[in-house]
Amino acid sequence: MEKTLNFLTSKDSEGCGMKEMKEQVVSPKQFKKEVSAISDGTVIDHIDSKSTFKVANILSVQNETQMVLVGMNLSSKHLGKKGIIKIGGRILTQSEVNKIALIAPDATLNIIKDYEVVRKFNVAIPDIIESIVKCFNPNCVSNHEKIQTKFHTISKTPLKLRCHYCERTMKAEDIELV
Ligand SMILES: Nc1ncnc2c1ncn2[C@@H]1O[C@H](COP(=O)(O)OP(=O)(O)OP(=O)(O)O)[C@@H](O)[C@H]1O
Ligand SMILES: [Mg+2]
Ligand SMILES: [Zn+2]
Q1: How many distinct structural domains can be found in the chain?
Q2: Is 0.90 topped by the overall pTM?
Q3: Would you say residue 12 lies in a domain?
Q4: Which of residues 122, 137, 154 is at a domain's end?
């Protein structure tokens, strides 16, 4: 790629029919930006790589009309491999952020404005989780009556949630989002 660009921009190309192409030359840096940058929106970084598409599903990215970039198995210093999701024109809701925290507790959110990161924060598992998780106990009242589910976070690592209604404790692998 770099070689081709060098050829197109080199002085030798003038006078050999290459002049018009010169206008289209994109520097490697700009090329990288065009396929990986969003002007405004949210970047969800440091997703546990295996959970990348679960996070994409939480956010229903298939319904987006603006740019969405999803990457997985990207190298990361502290996670080994990570996933990234970049969504143009979108700011996440608190409920979406809470769901992401349960699935990808190391994720960081970056708010992008005019191509720059203007805010950065870590997701956090709340002490009380309402509505977003389903109780895994089939006999739990929350599975039979029209009430919002409610869990108390009794441990964040490893994740353990206790149902407010039936008091059963769920681990990360038992968690099903509503
Ligand atoms: N305009 C943009 N469009 C798309 N992605 C962007 C944009 N700006 C930054 N990013 C991405 O957002 C993430 C955070 O950007 P930042 O520049 O803060 O990187 P960083 O210093 O590596 O952050 P961290 O310390 O959180 O790893 C990176 O993955 C970066 O590639
Ligand atoms: Mg980084
Ligand atoms: Zn329950």
Answers
A1: 2
A2: no
A3: no
A4: 122
Q: How far apart are CA 8 and CA 17, in angstroms?
A: 11
CA distances from 96 to 55, 56, 92, 100 (A): 9, 11, 6, 6
Measured from the Cα of 43, ligand 1's closest atom is 12
Is the pLDDT at 172 greater than 70, yes or no?
A: yes
Residues 115 and 170 in one domain: no
Give the sign of the dihedral formed by CA 75, CA 80, CA 83, CA 86: negative
Task: Assess contact for 130 and 68: CB atoms under 8 A.
Answer: no
How many C-beta atoms lie closer than 10 Å to residue 59's C-beta?
A: 21
Ligand 1: residue of 117, 121, 123 to mutate (most ligand atoms within 8 A of CB) is: 117
Task: Ligand 1, residue 115: give the atom nearest the CA.
Answer: 1
Q: Is 37 in the pocket of ligand 1 (CB under 6 A)?
A: yes
Q: What is the CATH number of the domain that holds 168?
A: 2.30.30.20
**What count of other Cβ atoms lies within 10 Å of the Cβ of residue 124?**
11
Nearest CA to ligand 1 atom 1: 115
The whole domain housing 79 covers 54-122
Q: pLDDT tens, 44-71?
A: 999 999 999 999 999 999 999 999 999 9
Q: Could you tell me if residue 74 is inside a domain?
A: yes
Residue whose Cα lies nearest atom 26 of ligand 1: it is: 108
Buried b (16+ CB within 10 A) or exposed e, 97-111: bbbbbbbbbbbebbb
